[in-house]
Write the structure tokens for this entry.
Amino acid sequence: ALGLTGALAYSIYELRHPEEQYEPDPNKKTLVILGTGWGSVSLLKKLDTENYNVVVISPRNYFLFTPLLPSCTTGLIEHRSIMEPIRNILRQKKATVKFYEAEATKIDYEKRVVLISDDSEIKGDISHTEVPFDMLVIGVGAENATFGIPGVREHSCFLKEVTDAQNIRKRIMDCVETAMFKDQTEDEVKRLLHMVVVGGGPTGVEFAGELKDFFNEDLKKWIPEIQDNFHVTLVEALPNVLPMFSKQLIDYTESTFKEEEITIRTKTMVKKVTDKYIEAEVTNPDGSKTLETIPYGLLVWATGNAVRPVVRDLMSQIPAQKDSRRGLAVNEYLVVNGTDNIWAVGDCAIANYAPTAQVAGQEGAFLARLFNTMAKTDTIEKELQALSHEQSLAKTDEDRNRVFDEIRERQKQLRRTKQIGPFQYSHQGSLAYIGKERAVADISWLSGNIASGGTLTYLFWRSAYLSMCFSSRNRVLVALDWIKARIFGRDVSR
Ligand code: NAD
């Protein structure tokens, strides 16, 4: 039994400690990967790291399972349950991968270096330096779009990172507790308990649903005094929410929101934000426009993506990127147009697909296949060179024939290996939680589409997201969080 335990312990040790190679191998190319989101991590997962000197750079030393981030804003799920340390992912690779927790501040295309800066609170002697690359993958995602609307950055909460979800959680409870402060005026109570979400894409809809669940299932039980004044409003500039879903599911979402008493304000475009109210331009049924002031306690801004400065700066260095506005234009192999050694994946790349986790994940996996293949091709080409040298030295016919056969075999292998087609996205469908234990799903099935909404879809949504979690550890933690909230309710402390 001891032997078995020892063997098991050793195999776990082996699994967790890649072959040690701390210095870069001069015979291998240096592959630098920026980011630890969906694109970069799915590349890392499938990449044969022993073929390159792999360096990962990201200000975030964990992968975040973003589809469940809205649930963290209400404490239904604890944020650590959907985080996976990048070190944990890296130590399961065959060869050592270097990781620098830093922000890439500039990519110098000519010099082939990435400038990095350590933004953590503790600073060592060096906090700015550069990392050279032979090959570079950019998977830095996008930042929150504000369209330059005044006051957005200063006064609203975003919903992209763990800290955003934590801020929202604190802010919800701050609004509630402040509204309960002794002698608060009625108007101020109404304002503080007005939760406004701007942007009717999936992020805004899912957050509004989660927030109303929090109110219905927990808040109003703990603090019944807020019952009449707690209100959630979703503001959207277009005529309807969730434009990427089918008409039937949009209608279903809108009717569910009506039952949940979430107000949807469509054709309402926010133009200005102050610390206590937003100003919005409302398009009336007759086409006329009026300006309206909407007071709020919590404002969550979810109006999509904008290009990060480091990406915009790189675009300005490459003439072929001149006409691209929304991100790095890439070809069908995800090579950044105008370069031959830079690839881009996920929300920073423009490859004619929506900026979703699903697209980024598939792009990362494609690049891993491409890089593994490139390394294999290199090896075979080197072997072919050696064989043709051997052939020229061969003395007997028998030797020459043997080498000739080997060359033919390698050439066949090379042709097979080189046959990697361009990236093709396979859409599995769209899923969104809409509150009240209901979800909507547009699923691609065989050659058609299935649109469904309701409680069964919600169970499907839960199991799909659970199975998509990064690791078994995450899966267990998320499932336990769900059970915990069902038994004890959510934690309403700040
Ligand atoms: P989005 O781009 O999908 O939606 C933003 C919405 O904000 C738009 O409908 C836009 O009309 C509205 N808007 C913009 N400016 C406004 C203003 N000033 N006032 C009022 N409304 C305004 O953004 P998102 O929801 O953050 O999603 C980003 C991407 O991530 C999308 O591609 C989305 O499909 C994907 N995503 C998918 C899921 C899912 O599948 N469950 C969840 C989250 C995000």
